[in-house]
Design a protein that fits this description.
Elements (H helix, E strand, L loop, with lengths): L1 H9 L3 H17 L17 E4 L7 E2 L2 E2 L17 E9 L5 E9 L5 E4 L2 E7 L3 E11 L9 E8 L6
Antiparallel strand pairs: 1-9, 2-3, 4-8, 5-7, 5-9, 6-8
Length: 159
Amino acid sequence: MHELMNKMYSVRDKEERKAIVNQMREIRKNRHVATSPKVKDSQQRAPQTKLPEIQPAVSSSINSHIEEGSQLYQVPFASSGNRIYLSVANASERLLEKVKVEAINKPEWLNISPSIQNISNINPNDESQAEFNFSIDKSMTVNEEHIISFKISTQSGEN
């Protein structure tokens, strides 16, 4: 599963990403893994990003996979015009409506705009992308890891 997640992060072709999502679903079915959209582990509720790391988030039935596929990026001190792209995949068989991606638990020196991205719909076995602009204030402490969390939820309250 870890290899498939890494492959998904590196692939840009939408059809190929759909095929990877389908492979992941088959693996879950074969392993009899519960696919309930309710997340019990509080750490899985929000994909986490450690600065200077920017991690793409992938959601499978809104269950977020945090540790898998992390990518590390160096973010320049006191920089602006930076972007975070979060991919949100719907691996379920139903339409996800009014998906909200929200930046939560971030350091004060990090300015994210917008703080919330709304995705109107994500079709079954499809994905969408949330884009956030961010800048780093001069008050940032350098050479330290900092964590940003993003909460992904639907209108029905699934996280």
